[in-house]
Amino acid sequence: MKKTANHTLKDFGDVLYEEMKDNNFKALFDRESFKLDVANAVRELREEQHLSQQKFADKVGISKSTINRIENAQTEPKLETLYDIAESTGKKLTISYE
């Protein structure tokens, strides 16, 4: 913790550690983390293919706005959409539980 004139500031890690003790918060945090992981994976795959969002969307057979929402973690794509992305890029979709 850091102290300023009349305030005590907590480090983000300390606050997050405390919040993660709340099961509701942890569930929401995990869900958002999943969306970010998917967003990064899809964006990296698109960039690996050297495609714009529009060209990638055309290749997959979905709208550019859907690709944009996925890459910006604004939506949780359907499993079918993730499968279509993998299939259209010659990749295999795998799912694991940790």
Automatic annotation (TrEMBL):
Would the keyword Cell inner membrane turn up in this protein's UniProt record? no
One of the Pfam families matching this protein, by short name: HTH_3
At the top level, the lineage of the source is Bacteria
Q: Which CDD domains match?
A: HTH_XRE
Residues forming the HTH cro/C1-type domain are 42-96
Xref: PROSITE patterns: HTH_CROC1 (PS50943)
Q: Which UniProt keywords apply?
A: DNA-binding
InterPro entries noted in UniProt: Cro/C1-type_HTH (IPR001387), Lambda_DNA-bd_dom_sf (IPR010982), TransReg_Diox_bact_type (IPR050807)
UniProt GO MF annotations: DNA binding; DNA-binding transcription factor activity
One Gene Ontology CC term in the entry: cytosol
Q: What is this protein called?
A: Helix-turn-helix transcriptional regulator
